[in-house]
Amino acid sequence: MGVTTLRSRFFSAVMAGVLLLGAVFCFPGVSVSAKESKLIAFTFDDGPGAYTSDLIDELDARGAKATFFMLGQNIGNYTDVVKKMHASGHELGNHSWDHPFLPDLSYSQAEKQIMDTNALLEEVDGNKYHIVRCPYGSSSDDVSAIVNTPLAYWSVDTSDWESRNADSVYNVIMENAYDGAIILAHDIYKTSVDGMLRGIDSLQDQGYECVTVSELLRRRGVKIDNGTTYFDALPGEGGGDLPAETPPEEPIGTVYVTASTALRQGTDKESAISGIVPAGSIASLLNKDDDKKYKVRSPWGEEGYLPVSSLQELEGDTPPITQAARKDEDITPPSDPVNRNMRTVSCTDIYNTEKGGIALGRLPAGSPVTLLEYTTDSVAMIKSASGTVAYVAMKFLEDAPAGAGRPKRDKDDKGVKVTPPQSGAAAIDLNLRKSPSSSSLIESIAVAGTQLTVTEEAKNNWCKVRTDDGREGYVQTYFVGTDYTAAKTTAEVNFRPEPNTKKDPIALLPSGTEVRILSKTKDWVLVMTSDQRTGYLSAEFVEAAKKADTDKT
Ligand code: ZN
Asked: How many Å apart are CA 361 and CA 364, to the nearest integer?
């Protein structure tokens, strides 16, 4: 049920060489020096079984962590044991459903073996995927593609299933253990459990720390590739050793940030800034060990120090709204956000007006924001996680559609006036909006082809429609009815928000871009691209523009 220790050491030496080439080591604030701690990972396969619960108690009494590679077919009989295992901080591993030789299975059979077991483990720890050890250590390309986690092999095989002898298990461990080893045994045999526990006692006396397989790889800084097999993790293998993960500090209170302030990594003035916490933010207070700077956790989860002078401790977490420091109070946010789950794509400043003005703070990359409104061509109104309403350049927001914030067409614009037909089919999948604005709440979707009856004409090319199944909402008039002319651009051409060369273009469309002509005048055509952006093109560069005589004016 395994390979010899010597052979697996050879593999792991090769693996270590490969891994070092691609190793990336990054852990801010911790120096990259080898720690004296010796690490070892004890693993138990084929359970859970009759001895697993007692084994967990014994491990816990020793402060040892282990990884259990369990069979799906056994988990249902020991659900409480698996819950205890998880609660005690041991790692839940996947050893297939019923121990087949996985390379012999079809992709879907192998997937069922892995994912059915994951599903039971997910009920315990909430994770969709769990580290996998293949039965007999035998993997395949299919298995590598399925697991979505590393594959755990071993470097010390106790051959416990063969010997069924605690002394033998213990002796193999003591003769072969080394810093970074992964030890294999099975918790379905009492002899294995006894021998492993004695091994843990002796190795702990020698200064070993018993950790899970994932913790071993993490602490050694090993670069993880899902579907790749790991045999052990030698000291320094990933470029350096990391400290044990410390649990997050419990907040001792809440503070209100009265002025936008740099979040520093240390208490002295020189220490690095990891972001700006905007005025008006609420942060968790972690400690007051320094009387000039308090340690806080920012609204986006980053820890650092802020000067006490710009903080106000709160009783609960209700902000003192009267604070003069708030510069965003004259921004009136719309009632219907466009997107409640948007993030910043890179670090960006936020301002109190759409043209810039006062910087209200800086959002680090990945900050969650609520997108309130596409204000102009390139600026959006957002609400930060700490509640600050501000303006931000749209290019810093993920998935902001090109041209989404283009200015509304001027009422006096003679270029295009589209009179909606009294009824027609939806030209594309349409958002039925609560009010005639592209930032208004979407109430439902009318898929392309849905029959629409115009019930009310509104201003600025919006009309109210009713679907044939009785839903109502506002859509742009030129999406009602399907008799549009297909065309292509005949040159590279600017795609503009308005029929006006003075306005910055939304995009440059390549020659040959397929568009649908929605409306036209002598010089301009209003078109929709295949990705459903609408805008204006100079008519001379659009094929068939002249034929689009059905000007709806
Ligand atoms: Zn097994």
From this structure: 10
Cα(157) to ligand 1 centroid in Å equals 12
Residues marked active site are found at 45, 186
Side chain identity, residue 361:
G
pLDDT digits (tens, 9 = 90+) for 310-355: 888 877 655 554 333 445 556 777 777 777 778 887 777 788 777 7
Residues lying with their CB under 5 A of ligand 1, a single-atom ion: 45-46, 135
pLDDT (tens digit per residue) in 479-493:
776 556 778 888 778
Q: At what angle are helices 52-62 and 190-205 packed, to 10 degrees? A: 10
Instruction: Return the higher-pLDDT residue of 105 and 529.
Output: 105
Q: How far is the CA of 160 from the centre of ligand 1 (A)?
A: 11
Burial 10-37, CB ≥16 within 10 A → b, else e: eebeebbeebeeebeeeeeeeeeeeeee
Q: Is the pTM of this model over 0.70?
A: no
Distance 139 CA to ligand 1 centre (A): 13
Strand order through the sheet with 514-520: 485-488, 514-520, 524-529, 534-538
Cα 93 to ligand 1 centre (Å): 12
Alpha helices in 213-284 (DSSP H): 213-219
Split at pLDDT 50, 70, 90, the class of 47 is very high
Cβ atoms of 471 and 432 within 8 Å: the answer is: yes
